[in-house]
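dude i think i finally got it to work??
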Amino acid sequence: MTKSLLRLPRHTAYSNPVLKAYFNGRLSLPIVTPDEAGARSGLSDAKKVQWNREVLVEVLKEQAELCQAGTKAHRAIDALLCDNAFTVCAAHQSCLFFGPRYLYYKVLSTIKAARMLSSKENPVYPVFWMGSEDHDFEEINHIHWEGTKLQWNHEQGNAVGRMSTQGLHQAINEVMSTATSSLNNEELSKLQTQLDAWKTKKDATYAVLWQTALYQLFQDDELIILNADDYRLKKLFSPIMLKELRNDSLQTCIQESDEGMFAEFSMPLHVRETNLFHLENGIRHRVELDKSNSDAVDFWCEKCTRNPEAFSPNVALRPIYQQTILPNISFIGGPSEVAYWLQLTPAFTMLHVHYPQVLLRDQCITVSQRTIDLQQDYEASWEALLLGDLTWQDVYLEKVFAEDLRPIIEAKKSWNEKGQELASYSHAMEEGLGKAYEGAWSKMNKLNATLLQKTKRYLKQRHPEMLSDWKRLTYEVRPENILQERYASTLSLIVKKSHSKEALISAFNPFNQGIHIIIED
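look at this
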């Protein structure tokens, strides 16, 4: 059963100062607020924008048909032809087998936001934007299952969505083999069903397999999945790509705002002079050109006009591409995505592209009842566990083993009091003598601290069952010292008998986001 235990407040989820300023209303930006009222305001603004819905729906319908999307997705796509229908969007790299769990949670947050905003007058549909043009294969080619890294080995240099699926069957077999020891027969059957969607189909690219698998996972939802690596969509975006090839106005615009309104923050994006890639002969490489050379500029502009599908926006232009083709009112992302969308605000104004509401996705940790019992037994706060703060262990030791630690703690306290007294006394006699006493006092404090830590280490070694409990508790929340949702695989969650997608959607609220502790038993 999937059951919500508690939700930690939003500030637990990030440490980025610009996000704190944004969610506390301290950024002077011409954008709507990250709440439901802001979404309604953004919807009113979006009604004034004209998108080429015919081309978008044409592309989406072709992809949905090819990838065997469910009836609800087809209906949602058809609805986008109407000017009163809008979208809420999330984006991510096309990670193998849906990658770590936060990709899954991002989709669920998007579905929840669309449900909350949709009305009879203005239906709102969730869209997942595939990062199919990303070429960082090493970032997407593996998952972790019960601490084991399972990897797809493939020689590549292309945008990952255009890659063949050579060798993928070996990764599928490795997942099944590894999972056998940790899943029951019902769960193994569910896993096999999920992996069947990833089995190589004749001439299918990795993007087609990925899109098919995600449509299968959400076949009962209105989720629309878009692979934007399409010549018709690139043609719609070509006017902005041509501007990017002709001048460096995007770089200048962001540099000015970084030095102005964002001067007190460290912003994440490094905006280049040209923020485009070119895809040629199976290789995706950065466009480098001297824009003072008119012949070079004309050469690249001609290539872009003739073959816009051969060009690909980088991280600075991808949000602008998204908003050029989608009737989108809200974007949902992780902490780093929210930060760079905020950084790009002036670029949207400069290019006259509709800027959406920007929301932080829900974050989530799933735990067993055994983990909850350990957390309560050892009085570890969930916030400390999530942040990797181990001070709760010292607090527990000093409480449970108070008698064992009393002599050294009292000695430390006594020496502090006596040291202050001696320091005052010696300074009154002579300044140099006072400094000598302070030096000795400092050394004694360090010695006391060392002895205290050694005593605690001895007590831990005497209680191996306690150390085993602590390891289990911390590993479930932060395996390999990485937050669970960024390490554990989506597959290992969704095949569990206890898992409920609808229960998570019910618990999530991207307008009042936080970190959810969810019981999966």
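Residues 2-229+328-367+496-520 form one domain.
im so relieved honestly
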